[in-house]
Every structure is written in structure tokens, then in C-alpha cells.
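User: Assemble these into one structure.

Assistant: Restating your components, then the assembled model:
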Amino acid sequence: MESDGKKPGRGSGWSRRDFLQGSAAGALATGLVADGLTTEAEAASGGLVGPDPLPMSFRINGRAHTATLEPRVTLLDALRNHLDLTGAKKVCDRATCGACTVIVDGKPAYACSMLAIEAQGSDIQTIEGLGTPDNLHPLQAAFVENDAQQCGFCTPGFVMACKAFVDAHPNPSPQDVAEGLGGNLCRCGTYMGIRNAVKAVAGKGA
Amino acid sequence: MADYSWPAPENRDHLGSRLLRLDGPVKVTGAAEYSLDVKRRGMLYARLLRCPHAHARITRIDVSAAEAMPGVKAVKVIQNVGAEIKWALDEVAVVAADSEERAGDALRGIEVDYEVLPHFVTERELDKAPESTPAQEAVEGDPDAAMAAAQVRVKGDYGLAGIAHCCLEPHGSVSDWDDPENLTVWMSTQSVSGIPGQIAEQVGVPAANVRTICQHMGGGFGSKFSPDRWGILCAELARTTSRPVKLFLERGPEVAVAGGRPSAYATVEVGAAKDGTVTAWSSRSWGSGGPGGSGSPPLPYVFKFENQRQQHVSVPANIGPSRAWRAPNHPQACLITMSALEDLAAELRMDPVALFLKNIDKTGPRAQTYREELQKGAELIGWQQTWHPRGEGRGPIRSGLGLSLHTWGGRGHQSNCELVVFPDGLVEARLGSQDLGVGTRTVIAIVVAETFGIGIDSVKVSIGDSRYPASGASGGSTTVGGVSAATRRAAVDAREQLFERIAPHLEATPDSLVAEDGKVFVKDDPTRSLTWAQATSRLGVTPITAAGKNPGPGKLTDSGVGGVQMADVSVDTETGIVKINRLVAVQDCGLVINVRTAESQVYGALIMGVCYALTEEKIFDPTTGRPLNADMEFYKLAGISDIGELIVHMMTGPGYDERGVIGLGEPPVISPGAAISNAVANAIGVRVPELPLTPDRVLAALEKGGRG
């Protein structure tokens, strides 16, 4: 379901595509690689980094976070294993189920399929930044009121996908909902509640 | 003796309400901590090396390179030289390292040589199976004579592929030894109270020294009763490394080896009179759920005919072993039976509702329930207005209706509740139970609040920890019955204790008091009254505690439900794509404690049913024996756009409520496959014999059956 454009966003100037382009440049760069270019600035300038950990900084839910991570660490593993933000769940780890959905620069993204290093410089929003149990975001309240969760494991990802979807489609038709939320999967079968939750907040500027 | 029975309908404040799930807010905010989210200081990450072959013997294994890799703290061989591996992705070795990534690297440092042995993964073709058990046979009456004498005979082939549980939270745990003798395990499990004993035995400490915690769990569906080999390994690695260890399965093995519902295939012959009365049944079924073969589906399902023969052949295959999958053996038996009966109705040009009603007394004690549910279902889906005889649709896109019946037991399991009334007015219920997504906490809170006549806010529910009184595993739709009955008995006893303590303050006898609407008062003189807070403050500093268990005195639970489902589908006869228009579920489960979460569970079951009816299937490569779709890209679950409109009706009120609580998890997931398959047959005029009803299967059936 591409209609909502959920794909790994571009980050700090270091992406998988750059990596491939760098690889294509091939053996000419080999001499440079051996020098151990590991700083963030150099990474941003297009030099190769890793495999050793290097300091990274992130803007998550409006706050600055730092961590020292190997360049291969995904944004999802960085959040869960290094930054104590475990709301995004690791399920398929392959950009299929949406349980890891976060919002990167306003667009929903599968955190499992984006490297942490490329998320630097982006504005990252996770479920932890939306609302708290005592102060729910209206969309979260609508999930509760429509019982749009059972085991709840897909729920944070679904809430974030719905947030991005409703922001982009304030007055969605049922068909819009079906297509726009097709990038998330639930095993317990909570889709009826999710539909109703989205319907409840649609048009209310959630 | 105290009266433990549920209050009469007119005296209920909370029972049968539509209370919002109490753990909803922590789930929608990501604050709920699942076992997969647990992180301990200094924790290591473990990963498992798996055999790529479906059947092989290990001839050499060398872990020395892996042991020398950076960050690696332990490497352990699970199956050594000489071991016979019987399914692809079985565990061979395990690594613990200081990061998930480094643990993964170390797996590549382990060298294993295998002698590849012949495998068998295509049990659909029974004649090619290298081995199978002799057919088990059960016979009633004289099926041969009855079949020969039948006015009409219909024969058909039906089947369902093996499927996975595909829990979103994978199997696994975090193990942390508090000291050399005491272990804490955070595990994704359906059996909080049952896990310590299973681990303790393996790691050589008393069960009392193992504590299991599972506050929230991301789906089990019958696959998470045991700590599994990996749960034991996790505890052992934590001990050898003196560090906490986290070991959860990756998605591939989660789909391939951590779950599985056995396949089932059958050839069925049904004999009947021209009026639709079934007189004879004969079925020969087979299936596999891995090296152990498969259990026998209860055929014929729901109905019992005077003359019937059932044969079942269990076929071992080199696929990951099956586990209990929500209503074990029932969805298979249901698809086979309800398809055969619908085919009979089509042969007789009879409305299947009429044919099912004609034979409804053969369903036994639930016949009246089925009658009522068939009527309700037909009304909700508009059966009379929209049903047409099989195959009478025209045009490329054809619609059809189908129906199915199911049954389940669902008696409450053994459960213990410790109930504490605190002087500040809070009432806590403690049970070593777990919430799989059913709403267990909410159900317990309703029972407590109802018994004391207090608000839900005054109740605290503590579950998910083996330190609480033992409660049964959550399987077979037994949890809600078990925990609600244990809680009710504890709460009634605690209330009696409370009445004894405060009766003198109201100058009354304990048995003259009632607790309702946040007050304790004299039944015949409500002016002699204390608020709940006043009443509990009379306890001084010591709380009241009471224990309740299930089973126990008083009729609080029962067993045995019916259930009717109807499907409305459209089939594109040019592409073979099946679209769900509407599904109707009419379900009884005795006394419904929380209507909202009960409905949610039925909606969920319908959706899970759409998955296995249309898309879900474990696929193996016959040449290599390996699973081809051990992932979520090609192991297909239904998405939000695939489910159509779902309509759920719970049977409540007289005739149902007085039975007490009966479990609900299994029954509604049994019928969707059969109801959808029957609707497709009704739409396109031919039976698509096997689930899932993928476009290729639909087109093949159309090709074979003609497009008339």
C-alpha cells in the first residue's frame, strides 16, 4: 500500500542509496576507507564509516538523544535497545507489518528498515511522544474507547500510522482508511475497532 | 454456606456491562511492558543457529571461531555430532553476545556439516508419504448398509493447509539470576503459574526459586504454554555468563517452528433422504502437524448421525511441530463437515438453512441454541432475501452466502485468587493468571466491583506474576470462567468478613448487611448505612484477606456452547479473487461479563478466520524441504481492507445468563473457514476443495467444474 508513501525517509545525508553509490565508486575509494573515518561529520560528508560504533545524535519527540552505535544498527534497534524507547515493536523486521511505525519528518516510516545513522538530523516522533496513560492524545483515547487493541502488540505502530494518516487525510473515506492503513497488520483482529477509532477522530484535527 | 452465585440480572451494576479495557491506556501509549521490552543492566543478547535442512544428521560442528569473536560471551552446542534433525530451522547452537548484532555475527562463525537425509513435506499427497499410522477408526451403527440404502449420496474432497500461529510478540524470554539459586524470567507465556516448575526442573533449582513475570503478552493463540528449549537455554546462558540474557526468536523461526496448526484433508460421503435428513456419514481424513503427525479431527463435527464411520491417518512430515492452535482440531473438522453438508444441500437444491434445521436435533443438547442462532444469523445477514440456489449467480462477479455451526467446551480452569480489602477502601485481586488480550484484568475487576458494590476505580487487579496464587494456563477458553469464579468466591468470603467486622458499628447482624452503590447498609433499614470508605476504615490497620478457588461451591460456570456464522462473499470468476462482503457471528457463551471485550474477541476470531480462509498457508519447497514463506511478506495475514463488514451478536438473557460463565476464545474462530468456503461454492457453483481459497485454487475449481 504505497498510497500513503510509507517508506524509509532520507536522513542526515547518509542513506542506503548513498552507500550503494559509494560502493559503485568502487575500489578507487579503498585507500580512504582504511583511514578509519568514523566521525559523524565525515559520515555526513560522504566518507565511509564503521564497522566500529560511532557517536550519533537524534531528535526524538522534540528532545536530543545521543548514542554510540554501529552504523548497521537500525533505527528500531537503536530506539529499543539503546534509547529505552520500547513502544515501537520489533515483529517482522522487514517493513511488512508496521508494528515499528514511527513518524520521521512528518511521514510514517518503518523504523526496522531505516538505519539509525540515516535518521540523524530528522525529526523523529515515537509513540512515547504522543500522549501518556493519564493524558491521552485524542487518537489514543479513540483507540481505547473503540477497544482497538487486544494483545496490544501492534497497537503503538497502528496508532502512529493512524496519526500520520489522519494528519494527511483529515476527512478520510472508508476506502481511504482501507488503503492508507494497509501497511500495518494485527494478529488478534482489531481492525473493526481501529476503523471506528479513525472515524471518531476524523475531521476533529487530531 | 455463603451464596456465591452471580447476582440476578436486576441487581447487576457491572456484570454484563460494556466496560472499556482497563489496560487500554497503557497499550495505546506504548507504556505497557511486554517481555520483549524488558532490558536489564548488562544484559546479553542470544541468537540461535538453525539447521537449513528438513532432515539431516550433524557430522561436524566447530564453534571455536565463534567463541573468539568480539563481544561473544558464550557459545553452546544444542545438538551435537550424530544428532538427527527432523525439520528445517531446528536449533543447533546458541550464542550470547553483548549486542544483538554481534550475536548474529557469531552465528556465522559456527561451522556445521550435515549429512542430508531424505525428507517429506507434502503430506497433501498421502500416497507419497514414507510412513503413516494405521487408520484409527470409529464406527456407529451400520454406515455401509445405511449408505447403500440412502436415497441420495454425495461425495467430496475437502482440506486445509497447515498454518502458523504467527504471534506478533515472538516466543522468548529474559532470564536474570538474582543469585546462584534464584532466577527471574520475563517470558511471553500463556502459563505464568506453570512456567517456574517447567524451568526449575531443567536448571536444577526448586520451583519456588523461579519467578515468572508476564505483565502483557503479544499473542499466544495456543503456542506459548511451555518455556521451550530456548527458554531453558536462556536461563542456562544467564547462569554460565552471570549476566541477564535475552533470547527471543526472529520472525522466520517464529513462523516456521514456534507454532503450527496441523493440516487436514478428507474424503467424505454423506447419505440422506430426499427431504434432507442425513442417514449416513463416512469420512477418511489425514493430515500432518510435523514429525508427530496430527490429531484426529472430531468428524462428523457438531452433528452425530445414527450410522457413521470415521477413519483418520496421521502422517509424520519433516516440518516444524504443531502446537495447540485456537480450538485444536475443530476448524479442520468444521470445514470438512459443514462443506459436505452444504454440498448435500446443493445436490438436493435445498436451502442449507433448511437442511441444517432438518438435522438440528442430531446436534445434541445445544439444538435449541442452534435454532435460535440460525434464526438470528439469517435475520442479520438477510438470508431469505439474498440467498439463491448454488451457482445461479450470473456475470463475472458472483456473490453467494454460506453458513456453518460450531461448538466448544470452555469450562473455567483451576484458578486461585487472593483478595485483599485494604482499610483505605482499595480492593486488590491477585491471581497468577495472564492477559493474552482477552481483557482478563477487566473481567476480574468487574467481578470484584460487582461483589462489593463499588466502582471499578476502587479495584486493583494484580496478575502476570508467578508469586501470585496459581492460576491455570490460558488455553481452551478456560481463563475467564476460571478467574471470574475464583475471584467471585474470594470476594464473597471477604465481604462476609467485612460484614462481621462492621456489623456492630451498624447495630446489625452480619447477614442483614448488603454492599451496594458504594455503601454498606442494613437491608431492611437503609438509613443505617456506612459509605464504603467509612466501612473499610473500621478495619483499623489490618486488611482483610480471603482466598477463593475454582472449581468450588456454587454454580458460577458451565461448559458447552454453540455458535452460528454466515458469510456473504463476492467472487471474481475471471481473476479468482474472493472478497468478503459481510460476516455474521452469532455466539453464546453463557453469562457475558464484559460485552465489549467479548464482542472484540469475536470480531478478532472472524478476522483470524478470514486469514486462514483466504490467505494463510505454510508453504514448503518439496525439493529442499524448506519453508518458503517463513516471514510476513509471503505468510499472508489479512489487512484492514480485506475483512469486509463484520457483524457480531452475543446471545444473552434468559436461557443463557443462568448457565454461568463459559469461555469464548475458541468457538468463534472455528466456523469462518467453512462459512466462507460454503459462500464461495454458493457463488460460483462449484466447491473449491481446499483452504486457503487463493485465486489459483478458485480458478482451478472453476476450470474443473465448468463455468455454467
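Residues 479-502 of chain B form the longest helix (24 residues).
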